[in-house]
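Can you make up a protein sequence with its backbone structure tokens?

===
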Amino acid sequence: MINYKKNQKGSNLVEVILALAIMLIFMSGAVTLVARYLNTTQRSEDLTQIEYVAQESMEALTAISYDDFSQLVDGTYGLQIFNDQWALAAQPDVVHNKYTRTVTISSVNRDINCNSSVCVDDDHDGYSTTNLASAIEVESNGNIIAPAGEMQVDVMASEITFGWGSSQVDVDVKLIKDGNFTTLFGGNDVDGGESYSETLTAETNIAIQGHAQYWWFINSTRRSDTSSEYVYVLQNGDPLPDVPVYGDQEELSIIIGPFLDENNDVDIDVNQVLILFDLVGTLGEDSADFQDLVILMSFDPDGYVDCGGFDCDDTDYKINPGATELCNGIDDDCNFLADEDFPDVFPNCDQGCVDSDGDGYNQSAAGCGWADCDDSDYYINLEENEICNNGIDDDCDTLIDGDDDECEDVILDSDIKLINLELSWENFGSTQSRTFSQYLTNWQDPVLCSD
């Protein structure tokens, strides 16, 4: 009997413990449900509240832009009331003692199709003031430091002969990557047109080695990364070396003519390199012609964006490297010369019965047809459409911008700002945030991109 009672007492204790455990589990679940309910309810209230804060903030920023668009300088701000008006604050501010408001203002760059771009093309003529530098680096000894991306090696020519009968000399071309050699082309079939490409997976030191062999008479090797006086490593804008022609070989300027501008300067992409080898000649003599091997190396680095040619006036879409030079006293084609195509008229492009801008209208109507109200601009004359908000009488009817019912809105990138508004807050120990974005412009209801 005694043992039975002890066992019964132990069983009762176990039952109590189990009951307490079950009760704690239920209580914990209930607390969790209540916490989730409160969390969800509070988040819903927060989201509703910040919608109102966001709307108020965007209306405030719009009011600031209408009052003085120049206040919208790139940077991070808050908002404040100053003299009963909305103004930017130097630091993010707190709304209703809970929501941190961060306003980020940034400039807008769009390409010719009005898509976002890293290139600055304010007037959308396809030419940029960014003028991105080359992604490759050519060191003083000729070594090329190339970033990851595509690489192509093209043999443009191999004009090398020897002795009586102009026998063709065998040429071998090797690629040197971080000191490792790979034969690309070899034998007497190397005469131009050969091509090789590969993908560089990391930044690489690049060089080219040329080797010429003709029986026992010629056996010479030149590398492009040894500062050799028998090798030229040329980039865009470099002058073409003044070298003689040997025998009946073509002139160097003819061989690489497609890569030269009107001044005989190298005209290639900023991520290309032109390498000229003299493999058998002697400096100072006719045999040193630097066309024994001509290599064009092209690189397409990962993430690199080509912004087109440099725009010398990015506020006027009629002025760029692709424009036609007019007789108007302006450097229309961005070659640092004005009216150079009119030697018989310059410097009097603005005198007499002359259509300076070539639009079919002259400065004076006296015996010269209809008068042009601005004979320095091809796109200003009686046949043009009025463009709003540019301060110009485009169609020569004495009405400017909004005073002319026919005006067409166009806006420059410099008159646009991207506004990012972030509202953040704490919700039961967790940081929450929402971001809102919109564009603000220097004009009300403009067309953001001209057709």
Observations:
- The helical segments are 2-67, 252-255.
- The first strand starts at residue 75 and ends at 82.
- The radius of gyration is 36 Å.
- The CA atoms of residues 57 and 188 lie 74 Å apart.
